[in-house]
Design a protein that fits this description.
The complex is a heterodimer of chains A (about 575) and B (about 230).
Chain A: H1 11-26, H2 32-53, H3 69-73, H4 78-106, H5 117-153, H6 161-180, H7 203-232, H8 245-277, H9 290-324, H10 331-344, H11 360-388, H12 397-420, H13 422-428, H14 432-462, H15 468-495, H16 509-538
Chain B: E1 4-6, E2 12-14, H1 20-55, H2 57-63, H3 69-94, H4 98-128, H5 141-148, H6 160-193, H7 202-227
Antiparallel strand pairs in B: 1-2
Classes of the chains: A mainly alpha (about 575), B mainly alpha (about 230).
Chain lengths: ~575, ~230
C-alpha cells in the first residue's frame, strides 16, 4: 500500500469487523469466543495497517524498507519484529486488562454481582495466563529487547533473524490455541494449573496448557537468539564491560529463558498426557504425587518471575543514567547483580510450597535462599540512588516511570522478604497479601518499566515525541491508581482475606471497594498512555536522532534507524554512560 | 536481514555477519544452546524417574523385567552405529568426498528407521499384554506373572506407573529420533543439491550434534529402563 503517495488502507474494514462480529455474537449467530478471536485479530491487523498508512515512501528507514502488510508479516528485520511484538503485546495487555477490570468489578460488592463463581474462576485464569505468558514475559525482551539489543551493541541484526520471526509466530499460534479454550467453556484452573484439579480431562484445560507450551517455544527462541547475539555480534571495541546495562539484563534473562523454559515444556507436556492418557505422575489415585507438579511448575515459574523483572531492571538502568545526566554508579555491580539474580533464581522455587507439606529443612533452606535474592536486588536500587545523588535530574515522563518503579518495586521486594519468612508465610499464604506483593513487583515493576521504556525509546522507533503532558497524566493515574488498588490488598491479606475467592466476608467490603476504584484509575491511566502513543504517531513533533542527549549507541544513528541500523559499523572506544 | 554477502575467502554469508566463519561459529553456538534446552527438557523426566524410583523401587524392579534387554542392546548398537556414520558423513564433506558423505547420511537415516522398527516390535508386544500407561493399563496379573516367571502377588498394584515412565521417556525420545531423521533427510537433500563444500557444512554439523545428543539420551534410557 506504500507504492503510491496516497496509500489505500483496509483499516476501516478491519476496525468495523469487531463491531460486526460483536453484533453477530449478540444475536447468537456466532459463538462469542469466535467473535472475540476474530475481533482481536482484526484489531491487531487494523493497528498494524494504521501504522503503515502513516508511512511516506520518500523516506529511507526500516519502516519504509518494504511496503504493505505482507512485508511486515514476512520481515526478518529485528526492528520490525520488535514492532510486531509491540502491537501484539499491547492487544493482549488490553485483553488481560479487561479480565482484570471484570474481576475487580465483581469484587466491588459482597455476593454475586456481574458474574457467577464459575465465570469468576475463568476470568481470573485468563487474566493471569494472558498477563504472564502473553504480556509480561514477551513484553520487554521480545519487544524493546528485539528492537534495541542489536542497536545497543552495534549489530546489524540478531544472530538468527528467521528464528526471531518464528518466535513471533509461535506466540501468535500459542495464543490462538490458548484462546480457543474459550470455545470449550474456558479453563478455570488459574494460570498455575495445579493438580489434581487440572487433570480431570477437560478440553479447555488441555488447550490452555498446549497454548502455554507453544508460547514457551517463542520464549526459548528469543532467549537463544539473544545469548548468541550478545556473545557473537558485538561491534569492534564493544567488550562485555562496555555493553549497556539493558543488554546485561536481557542477557541474564535470555539465559533463564533458555535454561528454565524447557522444564516448563516437559511439565506441561506431562500435564497434557496426564489429562489425555491418565499417566498418573501427578494423580494420587494412580500412585502419583500432585506436589511433584508444584515442584516442576515452580522450577520454571520462579525463574520466570525473574524473566519478567530482570529486563525491567535493565530499562530502569538506562532511564536513570540518561535522565540523571551522570555516569551510572557501579556499572559492574549492576551488571553482575543481574547475572547473580538469574543464578539464585533457580534455587528458590520451594518458597511457593512452604505449606504444601515439604520438609522443614527444605523450608528453611528455601527461605534463606529466597532472602538472598534481596541482596543483588538491593545492590541495584542503591546504585541507582547513588547515580541520582548530585546529578542533574530531568523529570521527563520516562524518568517519572523510572522513579515510580523504584518506589513500587521496593515495596514489592521488601514484602517478598516478609513472604520468604516461613513463620509469616503460614499466615500470609494464599491471602491477598501475596496478590498485592506480586502485583507490586509485576505491575509496579515490570509494567511501569515497559511504559517508561516505550516513552523513552518511542522517538527512536518512530522519530516522534510523546506528548509530555499526556505522558505525565498517564503516569499520575497509573502510579496513584496502582497504590490505591494494591495497597489495601496488603491490609486485606493481613486481615486474612483469601485470594482467588469469588466472594468475601462483609467486613472486607470497604477496602475491596477502594481497591476496585483504584483499578479503574489504572485502567484510565493505561488508556491515556495508549492515546499518547497514537497521538504521537499522528503528530508532527519530530524527535531527531537524540532528543534526550543519551549516550548509548542507538542514539548515534538516525531516527527511525535505516534497515541496516548503522551506515558504517561503529568502533566503540568508551563505556555506555560517559556523561560526566 | 536476508541479503547475502561474499567474504574475502569467497564464501557466502548472511549480511549481518562479518564473514562465513563468524556465521559458522554463531550458528554452532545456537545449536549448543538448543541442545542445552533439550537436556533440560529430558532432565525433567529423569528427575521424575529418580523420585519415583526412590518412592517405589519395586515397580521399577518388576517393570523392567518386561523389557527385553536383547532388543535394547540391538537398538543401542544401531544408534551408536548411526552416530558413527553421521560423524563420517561430516568428515567426508570436510575432505570433499561428497558421494561417501551422501551414503553415510543415508545409512544414518536407515539406522534411525531400524531403531524405530525395533521400538515398534517392543511397543506392540507390551500393548498386546495390556502393559499401557496409567489408567489404560489392562494387564492381567496372572498372565503377567507367568510372562516373567513370578507369582501373581509379586506384581505391584501401581505397576502402571512404571509404564507411564517407559512410554513417556521412550516416546519423547522416539519422537526426537523421527525429527532427527527428518533433519538428516533435509541436509542429505541439500548435499545432493550441492549446497555444501569443504568449507561450508554448518547445517550438517548442527544436525549431527542434535543426532549425537539423541544417541546420548538413549545411552541413559537403556540402562535406566532395561537393566535396572
Amino acid at each position: 500500500m506504500a507504492h503510491s503517495n496516497s496509500p489505500k488502507s483496509i483499516y476501516k474494514i478491519l476496525f468495523a469487523l469487531p463491531v460486526v462480529v460483536g453484533i453477530l455474537a449478540v444475536v447468537k449467530l456466532m459463538h462469542p469466543a469466535v467473535a472475540i478471536v476474530i475481533a482481536v485479530l482484526a484489531v491487531i491487523l487494523a493497528v498494524l495497517d494504521l501504522i503503515l498508512l502513516k508511512t511516506d515512501t520518500s523516506k529511507h528507514d526500516y519502516l519504509h524498507a518494504g511496503a504493505g502488510l505482507y512485508s511486515w508479516l514476512s520481515t526478518l528485520d529485528h526492528k520490525r519484529i520488535g514492532i510486531l511484538y509491540f502491537v501484539t503485546v499491547m492487544i493482549f495487555f488490553l485483553v488481560g486488562g479487561i479480565f482484570a477490570m471484570l474481576i475487580r468489578t465483581e469484587l466491588f460488592s459482597v455476593g454475586a454481582t456481574i458474574m457467577t463463581a464459575e465465570q469468576y474462576s475463568r476470568a481470573m485464569t485468563y487474566h493471569g495466563a494472558v498477563m504472564v505468558f502473553m504480556v509480561i514475559i514477551p513484553g520487554i525482551p521480545a519487544f524493546l529487547g528485539n528492537f534495541f539489543l542489536p542497536l545497543q551493541i552495534g549489530a546489524k541484526d540478531v544472530a538468527f533473524p528467521r528464528l526471531n520471526l518464528l518466535s513471533w509466530y509461535c506466540l501468535l499460534a500459542g495464543s490462538a490455541v490458548a484462546f480457543s479454550s474459550l470455545l470449550y467453556g474456558g479453563a478455570d484452573t488459574g494460570w498455575t494449573f495445579y493438580t489434581p484439579y487440572s487433570v480431570q480431562l477437560r478440553p479447555a484445560v488441555v488447550l490452555m496448557i498446549s497454548g502455554a507450551f507453544i508460547i514457551g517455544f517463542s520464549s526459548i527462541l528469543t532467549g537463544l537468539n539473544f545469548v548468541a547475539t550478545t556473545h557473537k555480534l558485538r561491534a569492534p571495541g564493544m567488550t562485555m564491560n562496555r555493553i549497556p546495562l539493558f543488554v546485561w539484563a536481557l542477557y541474564s534473562t535470555a539465559l533463564l529463558q533458555v535454561l528454565a523454559t524447557p522444564v516448563l515444556a516437559i511439565t506441561l507436556a506431562l500435564l497434557a498426557m496426564e489429562n489425555i492418557f491418565q499417566i498418573g505422575f501427578f494423580d494420587p489415585a494412580l500412585g502419583g504425587d500432585p506436589v511433584l507438579f508444584q515442584h516442576f511448575f515452580w522450577f520454571y515459574s520462579h525463574p520466570a518471575v525473574y524473566i519478567m523483572i530482570l529486563p525491567a531492571f535493565g530499562v530502569v538502568s538506562e532511564l536513570i543514567a540518561a535522565f540523571s545526566r551522570k555516569t551510572i554508579f557501579g556499572y559492574t555491580a549492576i551488571a553482575y547483580s543481574s547475572v547473580a539474580i538469574a543464578a539464585v533464581s533457580f534455587f528458590v522455587w520451594g518458597h511457593h510450597m512452604f505449606v504444601s507439606g515439604q520438609s522443614e529443612i527444605a523450608g528453611v533452606v528455601f527461605s534463606a535462599l529466597t532472602m538472598l535474592v534481596g541482596v543483588p536486588t538491593a545492590i541495584k536500587l542503591f546504585n541507582w540512588l547513588a547515580t541520582l545523588y548530585k546529578s542533574s535530574i530531568n523529570l521527563a515522563s520516562p524518568m517519572l516511570f523510572a522513579m515510580g518503579f523504584m518506589f513500587l518495586f521496593t515495596i514489592g521486594g521488601v514484602t517478598g522478604i516478609f513472604l520468604a519468612t516461613t513463620a509469616l508465610d503460614v499466615h500470609f499464604h494464599d491471602t491477598y497479601f501475596v496478590v498485592a506483593h506480586f502485583h507490586y513487583v509485576m505491575v509496579g515493576g515490570t509494567l511501569m518499566a515497559i511504559v517508561g521504556g516505550i516513552y523513552y525509546w518511542f522517538p527512536k522507533m518512530f522519530n516522534k515525541m510523546i506528548h509530555e503532558g499526556l505522558g505525565q497524566i498517564s503516569f499520575f493515574f497509573i502510579f496513584v491508581g496502582f497504590n490505591v488498588t494494591f495497597f489495601p490488598q496488603f491490609v486485606l491479606g493481613a486481615m486474612g482475606m483469601p485470594r482467588r475467592y469469588f466472594d468475601y466476608l462483609p467486613e472486607y467490603q470497604h477496602l475491596n471497594r477502594v481497591s476496585s476504584l483504584g483499578s479503574y484509575m489504572i485502567g484510565f491511566g493505561f488508556v491515556v498512555a495508549l492515546i499518547a502513543v497514537i497521538e504521537a504517531l499522528r503528530s508532527n513533533r519530530l524527535a531527531g536522532p537524540n532528543p534526550w542527549g543519551a549516550k548509548t549507541l542507538e542514539w548515534t544513528i538516525q531516527s527511525p534507524p535505516i534497515h541496516d541500523n548503522f551506515e558504517k559499523t561503529p568502533i566503540v572506544t568508551a563505556g555506555p554512560y560517559e556523561y560526566r | 536481514m536476508s541479503t547475502v554477502k561474499i567474504d574475502s575467502q569467497g564464501l557466502a554469508h548472511a549480511a549481518h555477519y562479518d564473514n562465513h566463519e563468524h556465521e559458522y561459529q554463531t550458528g554452532k553456538q545456537g545449536v549448543w544452546l538448543f541442545l542445552a534446552t533439550e537436556v533440560l527438557m529430558f532432565g525433567g523426566l529423569f528427575v521424575g524417574y529418580a523420585i519415583f524410583h526412590h518412592l517405589f523401587p519395586e515397580i521399577f524392579a518388576v517393570g523392567s523385567k518386561f523389557t527385553n534387554w536383547k532388543y535394547g542392546t540391538a537398538n543401542t548398537v544401531v544408534l551408536l552405529t548411526s552416530s558413527l556414520t553421521m560423524a563420517l558423513g561430516i568428515h567426508f564433506i570436510q575432505v570433499g568426498k561428497q558421494k561417501a558423505a551422501f551414503w553415510n547420511l543415508i545409512v544414518t537415516i536407515l539406522c534411525g528407521a531400524i531403531f524405530m522398527g525395533i521400538k515398534y516390535i517392543e511397543y506392540s508386544h507390551k500393548i498386546h499384554l495390556g502393559l499401557m500407561p496409567g489408567s489404560w493399563f489392562t494387564g492381567n496379573p496372572d498372565i503377567l506373572a507367568q510372562e516373567i516367571g513370578m507369582s501373581a502377588d509379586a506384581i505391584p498394584a501401581n505397576l502402571p506407573l512404571y509404564f507411564s515412565f517407559y512410554y513417556m521417556m521412550t516416546g519423547l525420545h522416539g519422537f526426537h529420533v523421527l525429527i532427527g531423521m527428518g533433519a538428516i533427510a533435509w541436509v542429505t537433500w541439500r548435499l545432493k543439491r550441492g549446497d555444501f563444500s569443504t568449507q561450508h557444512y554448518t547445517a550438517v554439523e548442527g544436525v549431527g550434534l542434535f543426532w549425537h545428543l539423541i544417541d546420548l539420551i538413549w545411552i541413559y534410557l537403556f540402562p535406566l529402563l532395561y537393566l535396572v
